[in-house]
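Please produce the structure of this protein holding zinc ion.
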Amino acid sequence: MSNIKINYKSFNFIKIENIFLFSSNKPGKKVCVLGGIHGNEIAGIEAIKNIIKNFKIENGEVCFIICNEKAIQENKRYIEEDLNRCFLKNKSYTNSYEENLAKELKEIISQFDICLDIHNSTTKNTEPFVICEKNAYNLLDSINAEKVVSNFDNLEPGGTDYYMNSINKIGLCVECGYFKDKKSILFAENLIINFLKKTNNIKLNYIKYTKKKYFLLNEVYIPKTDFKLYKQFNDFEELKKNQIIGKDGNNLVYSSFNSVILFAKDINNNTQEAFLLAKKIDNIKIIRIDKDNYEIYKDGFIKIYKEIFSQAPYYEIFSDEEVEKIYQLSKLETTVTLVALDDDNVIGLALGIKLSTHIDTDFKLLLKNHFNLDKTFYNAELAVLAKYRGQGIGNELIKKRIKFAEKMGYNIICMRTKEEGSMSMSLYKKLDFKLLNGVKSISKTKKINIDDEDIRVILYKRLANKT
Ligand SMILES: [Zn+2]
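Below is the modeled complex.
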């Protein structure tokens, strides 16, 4: 490699040869970009060599480091031990080559605000992905990778990202695709440049990549004896709970939950991980139906309404027309219809209406003496698709619905629920709902083939506003 004049002013000692520091002498972010933490991963190493040939900095400081020179020369992942596990904050150093290297690198990278560490995956057919914690989420829209995995700091610490985060700076790793794939070099080049535009070290608009899928690392499997994969797994391949992953000695190894698998490989010792399991964090958002999006979510609303209420514990059958009538209430300004969306699919719903617009005249008569029907908000339906339950989505819908009722000037929220002891009773009591003593509502249900009576109690909550 040709020698590039660099400014060593900020470093006391240099044993690592390939450090390329670009200083603008203007204020701005201090960013370091690492390649070759693993010596056989070409993307970062070659991308840095290409970029520094004519890199122009405009703000702050950028430092490119090609890290494990010895391992790169031997085209190995590492010489003595995995450099990517040597950055533990309080690791007591023995004396391996990589441990000494990490010690030096720590001194250097700790002088920067952000450290971008470029890697390749050892798994074929792997698309690029990011490893980082929440502190780096606002940088992600500059990175052309959809998948983001967090929680390495807790379960798999010891990389540069972990080290930066531990000293209250920002560290992130990008896996740029399979380590033998030459396309990963160009990918890394584009990625680094776009990232440095985002951090404003280069003064040009960056390309935004906003679509992201988030995963949480949940399990790191280290073999007890000799681990062999049952088959090759691609990174992010989905596994069902109890699906066979491989054999450790004579024991079968299963996925302990519905997961995605990462970095799966045969390993014949108990010092290295054989695979990681992560779970998808669904990107759920809740929106209110209004006249602009009424048509967009109509079919989704009808579909899940029918689906959820046809199942336990309801067993009620509705026609499309019946549900559409309910959905039409969204057109009233006094109604609050919320839908929970996963991507753009409706997976949950909540409906609340002005009590005086309720179609059940008996029910209104029952409450007329207790509440002003025009100032009372009635919590009608609440439903979340079975596979999305237990993630707090129902809770979010409930809280948002209350907030809307408050904002819209209602004095009271009321609802019907099953008798004392039910789940929803205890939930709403936590939200300061009270039982309306001595009042019971009885209505017919639409249960399949059963002429059933539905007996409910009334809960209510006074709202803060006094309009
Ligand atoms: Zn790597």
